[in-house]
Design a protein that fits this description.
The chain is mainly alpha-helical. It has a domain at about 65-120. Helices cover about 80% and strands about 0% of the residues. It contains five helices and no strands. The N and C termini lie far apart (about 35 Å). About 10% of the residues are buried.
Length: about 120
Amino acid sequence: MTYRTVATVNAIASVLFGLAALLVPTALASLYAITFDAVYVARLLGGSYVGYAIASFLTRDTSDPATRRAIAAANVFAWATGCVVSTFAQVQGLANGFGWATAALELVFAIAWIWTYAAERSR
């Protein structure tokens, strides 16, 4: 398969699973006959963060503006969504005070990537 095909199929599958996990997590879990516990969710989240790290690290020296904007846009969405979810969890009392540090870090990265995206658009 070509890179374009793999990237397209991956994007479709990721959007479907990602939206299902964000919007209807209990229904998604029921398809697999599982319940979400903290360890399972932490491992899924950890895998996502490592994936972001790899993509960011391997593309950090790219000079292609389209690639830089794409990486920035993806990171804006990921970090901003994480911030919203973490903030919601804090407001609901689902975590201790340390959870606010996570929400703050996610906000910082969302803003940094928004700034980066805007700077790349003006090039």
